[in-house]
Structures
1.
Amino acid sequence: MRHENRVVLVTGATGGIGSALVERYLREGARVGLVDLDDARGQAAVQDWRQQGHVVSFAAADVSQYAACAAAVEHIRAELGEIDTLVNNAGISPKHDGAPSPVQSMDALEWDRVVGVNLNSAFYLTRLLAPGMIARGFGRIVSMSSVAGKVAISNIVGAHYSATKAALIGFTRHAAAELGPHGITVNALAPGRISTPLLSTVADAANQAVIRETALRRLGKPSEVANVCAFLTSGEAAFVTGQVVDVAGGWLMT
């Protein structure tokens, strides 16, 4: 029960990793606010968790929009109380016929959309929640980067995805330096290939190649990402900030 009496906000909360994050925090005693664009899945998840006796709230929001993020925060605060833990998990990686668009033909609107969801949302929510964390002298922030933010894997993801994941690393380190004096830790995770529905958007041959290149010779599980995230926001990691932790089974070791 490392997160008992804590209020955690998770974006992208109905996806593979997002669902695992929500489950982990609820199992550890937190009250959890789910934010996701998919209203139907979010409502269904909340109903299921409430039937199991957990305290949850859901806000449907397009996190690429500041006003939508602000409304989601206010809704979750009203239902659960002040938010002390933020997990910026929302992310998209568009594919076309199983492959990412190359730079020279990438649609500008697609670029803007990926930047909005993957990067801007992390800034928006940090901006919205940091003042309260500062006032209380405590906060935990984790953003979901990727090994693609460290090395080139252009056969799997597009330039927009890599750019946003690299930017999250820079944002994490800068925010950690700014917010550390106020008792707030800011870290990032860099997952490798994790077994989620997103895998189906990439050709199976590419996923099999990743497995061969991974030291542990398998894909990761969403729960394994959630395990590390929960550690970083727990009291056990109180002296860890500004770090980027690979959860990649030894794939593309950096």
2.
Amino acid sequence: MQRVKQAGDAGLALLFALKAAREAINLRPDTPGYFLFVGTGSHRALVSELTARRNQAFAGATSVAYPVLDQDYVAYLLDRLAAGGFSSLPSFDVAVKAFQALGNRPEEMIKALRQLHFHLPAGANPDEHLPVIANTLRSAAADIEIMKLEQLSGVPTAVFDRIASTDADARGLFSGEAAASYSKAVGREVKVEEVQPVINELLATNLIMRKGHGIYGVTDPFVQEIWRERKSLEGKI
């Protein structure tokens, strides 16, 4: 197994070398078996770039998101904690809802259950406190990502908002109509040529991902959900 840092000329060259090796083996007559290349990555925007952009080595290759953990994980986690002496545990149904509220993120769920165990008042009902803890952690987790956006501010926020507010994949981000909406949001004229550098910034910070030519989406659906909830509370949706 070889770890490949895709960003940079060296990483890109290595990916093209891997593609060349794959084609040399697979296109050779009478080759026993096949060369299959399977890659994984935590930076979803960069992983998406590898298959969505025409100048990438594996443009057009299949890109599949890992399925999230579900109720089986919650059951396993509750059983493991009970065996370890954790007594202040919620019911299964409440735990599942909390896990879903936390974006099916195991690290956040473990934090929530630990807080419940160590800080639950004597005689209190875990089922009443876990949802509060989960919602607090949920907001804090999203804040980490949204803080990246706030540091960029201005046009990047307007572009991200257009993408996050779209129910399906976002298109037409470079159109005149889109530029007019960005101008209205930031209070100055935004030219179409300003948009591409902004898109690149949002891709680099892993806030958005390219899903195809001219097609974009928010990298983390959890962050998109929080963003839209907050806009709704502010009466902007």
3.
Amino acid sequence: MVTGARQALPVDLTGLRVAISAAAGGIGRVMADSFAASGARVFISDIDAQALAASPHAGLRADAGRREEVEAFMAAALAHLGGLDVLVNNAGIAGPTKRVEDIAPEELSETLRVDLESFFHCARLAIPALREAGGGAIINLSSAAGRFGFPLRAPYAAAKWGVVGFTKTLAIELGPDGIRANAILPGLVDGPRIRAVIKAKAVAAGISENEQTDRAVATTSLRCFVTQLDIANMALYLASPFGATISGQALAIDGDIQMLI
């Protein structure tokens, strides 16, 4: 099986001011660590106060599903950093694993609030600071579910498709200001979240977790999960001078996944 990146992208981002939502653990934590290791100044949010306290990065506890807390995070980030060069919208929840007719309206609303609406609110508040900086980058975390249908995961897929449309619209609106907007579409990222999804889908399908894992990996040309560092490396690239002319793109980091099951 092919494995993902095991080495951080060697890029100098000294002095870059970066705000990352939901970054005390998982992909967000690896991105925050990678930006900091490259010389950037980082401010993060997370709903998990304990994980936030254990993080080496400055930050504020905020629930991405609550607009007033998102707004407080962005205000704190701008004040702490003295401006902004990069916004990474990373917040996300898995949402329900059910057929559409079995999903409660409240489950849909919660998924959309965290996985899509929080991106809008962070971007809305970041744009004036990015303009003031003379340009910058917005990096939105979508998913392979933002380009495929995803059975039993309708709210999540709807949100992630929405992220792609939002990103492309941002790119068009903000391009004249030198602000780039791109979406990263991770595939099967090894970690607790995908393991929980695999477990839920295995239960729904009446098969073992190992069988569901094998089915999922078989949908990728490289027959692999990707790593959190693979995703962080793409974020670093997009925020760096190497990504200076990349905007409006939905960039799949997924081992060439062909479908979601």
4.
Amino acid sequence: MDRPAMMRVLSVASECAPLIKTGGLADVVGALPHALAGQDVEMRVLLPGYPKVTAETGGAREVARFPELFGGPARILSYGSRDLPLLILDAPHLYDREGGIYGDGSGSDWDDNARRFAALSLGAAYIAQDGAAGWRPDLVHCHDWQAGFAPYYLHKMRVGVPSVMTVHNMAFAGLVDEAHLRELKLQPEDFHMGGFEFWGRISALKAGLVWSDKITTVSPTYARELAQEAFGMGFDGLIRQRQDDLVGILNGIDTDLWNPAADIHAPPFRSPAGKSRAKKALRQEMGLPDGDGPLAVVVSRLTEQKGLDLLLEALPAFLARGGQIALLGTGSAAFESAWRLAAAQSEGVAVRIGYDERMSHLMIAGGDAILVPSRFEPCGLTQLYGLRYGTVPVVARTGGLADTVIDANDAALRAGVATGILHDPGSAEAVAAALGRLSDLFADEKCWPKVARNAMRHSVGWEGSATAYAALYRSLMR
């Protein structure tokens, strides 16, 4: 049978691993080009030219130039390997500044973020319209609010290239005041409830949800949840209207980068029985004493969404049974202070504030269990890393967490298919009960090794998801 023709897809995102990363979005954007190559999809990633990106892509060649783009000249640069081909929007007036990619590093967002990411979206539309050095996409794939205006610009410019909008987290709407309409090259007649208006403001995310040809999100359960008022963040009515255009496609992980048998950041192992060296190294690094209970790890942003306040409430009973917690993350000052205090008050709690790729690998390799008590979770990646390393996930029953972990209830244990522990979201009591179940399961010398082995055998790669994305793209080409 003839192979389908190679399809060209432009992926538009604000971050991309390994070049620039603040969260799981970057991992997904960085993994997709390689994952889709086997599906006859040639994907290039359009990324802002932040200082770190331009510093690491020396030798990039110019493939397009704009005399003026939202306040200054800009260029499109081409760079990258076969696995990660990049197009970089080099616009120093928008991206060449110290601080973070979204804010100044002190907790305040850049006041021109709407313009910065509208430029990224318009740059994508120009590439779709005119091409870049002969490369022109058949489809534009937009990620989160930072690329939300791209479907709108494509539509208004009548480019004729379809678009897909992926919602990685509906909680971030990309809001800006109506006064910026003209500045952002938005037409005033589209500022209404059926357009990009959201509670009296402009929403970049809503522009993407309204004008894209298809909407995807990063797990089937989250796709269903978004149509509910409790999870839809005010967009649930729009999601219900576009239900036929919504697809939930589960994220995967890079199983070469996250490979317990060949991890450069942690002592390697091939089965849960071989985790002892990694566990010892983690305890030494975090200053935790030896113990008989489970060593649970948390690698997370420290925010209310992640339910880490609920975990703090549930800690005493878990610690009293000999459990330990090692936490790595950064987030709100209040959450950072609360977790530092917990560590100061108990030798069974160790906390490291910050982002550290090496340490995240050691945490997941050395932990017995990984905790994700989120109030909502579009997909989640850390539970997938946990599965890969036989680090048993203890997670809330929401979004992608519910789609990837099989609860160790009696039926699943008898059938030999359990891979973790699920609990209801949003309740400290439910988290405490799950930690109690973790302690019981860990103490069961017959059941625990089976659950950990099941976790390691669970498929967490991109194969199935890449097939689903390719099928979605081709359906739009037809």
